[in-house]
UniProtKB/TrEMBL annotation:
Residues 75-167 form the Methyltransferase type domain. GO terms for molecular function: S-adenosylmethionine-dependent methyltransferase activity. This is Methyltransferase type 11 domain-containing protein. Pfam families: Methyltransf_11. Gene3D superfamilies: Vaccinia Virus protein VP39. InterPro entries: Methyltransf_11 (IPR013216), SAM-dependent_MTases_sf (IPR029063). PANTHER family: METHYLTRANSFERASE (PTHR43591), SLR0407 PROTEIN (PTHR43591:SF78).
Length: 287
């Protein structure tokens, strides 16, 4: 195994294909422990994602699923840089924006716009609030990163008042479909990504409905929002394997096909033949 292999944790080669070692935890599970350049990249990615039209479409579905906003006490658990928390506050809610990462809470608070948002540090799986503290809670693209998602959901339910709503949003990474690129490259990147990130809850989105039902919520609905991207420039902050600015150390693309992969993406974009699809699920239940 060469230097690069040791640094990046490659298990070896199989049928000529690089096999990565699985990551124990995702970077978003441990934002305070990632190196500063990676933290800046990930915080920048959260902000860029908030401006992506497809992510905005997912958020509109989640917004509608939350029901009335004005005058409500709401929790955004795993708030990232806090865009949604501030939008909810602007719409008249009293919002707590909570995140596990101190650096991320600081980044969210730096962007504070004076709306009624309180930014706090905390773990969604061990919330420091009394029972029934909120009229509604939301949790977007967080459960895929936590060790015990059902424990986190139980906490979200516990802090919601009877009659209040719990809304969870998560990605189904296994739903990614691609067209316009060579099939062997797509297969190599898919195998590498799922191998490297296999400890991650890659299929979290599709499990949300079942988890909310098992958590005892009623009137559970689950809506698959199919996001699609027809140019490489639209997709990079949502699907990192299409983003050439994500550094090799992030290990989302196999190093042996990296150049060929990004050249193929460029060519597909130039020919207007690029297509990538991803399903993100919005699920909601009533306490
Ligand atoms: C992919 S980001 C999503 C952020 C935001 N919800 C959004 O949609 O932009 C995941 C966030 O979950 C946070 N997170 C991860 N584990 C957490 C935990 N156990 N409790 C609270 N937040 C957590 C991370 O620090 C990060 O900000």
């Amino acid at each position: 195994m060469g230097d690069h292999a040791q640094r990046s944790g490659f298990a070896g080669l199989e049928n000529g294909r690089v096999i990565p070692e699985p990551l124990a935890r995702t970077p978003f599970a441990q934002l305070d422990d990632v190196p500063q350049p990676m933290l800046a990249l990930l915080i920048g990615a959260l902000e860029s994602m908030a401006t992506n039209p497809e992510i905005q479409r997912v958020r509109r579905v989640a917004w509608d699923a939350m029901g009335p906003i004005s005058g409500r006490r709401l929790l955004d658990a795993g708030c990232g840089t806090g865009e949604v928390a501030r939008e909810l506050a602007e719409a008249g809610a009293d919002v707590v924006a909570l995140d596990h990462s101190t650096a991320t809470v600081a980044a969210a608070a730096d962007r504070h716009d004076g709306s009624p948002v309180r930014y706090i540090n905390g773990d969604v799986a061990a919330l420091d609030f009394p029972d029934a503290s909120f009229d509604g809670v939301r949790c977007e693209r967080v459960l895929q990163h936590v060790d015990d998602p059902d424990r986190a959901i139980a906490e979200l339910v516990r802090v919601t008042r009877p009659g209040g709503r719990v809304c969870v949003v998560d990605t189904d990474w296994e739903s990614v479909a691609v067209d316009g690129l060579p099939a062997d490259l797509i297969d190599a990147v898919r195998a590498y990504f799922t191998g490297r990130w296999q400890q991650h809850h890659l299929g979290m989105g599709r499990t949300l409905r079942r988890r909310l039902v098992r958590a005892g919520l009623r009137d559970v609905i689950a809506i698959p929002v199919v996001c699609y991207f027809t140019h490489p420039s639209q997709v990079g902050h949502v699907l990192p394997m299409f983003n050439p600015t994500v550094p090799p150390e992030a290990d989302v693309v196999p190093p042996d096909v990296r150049d060929a992969w990004f050249n193929a993406i460029d060519h597909a974009g130039d020919r207007d033949e690029f297509l990538a699809v991803l399903t993100i699920w919005v699920a909601r239940g009533c306490r």
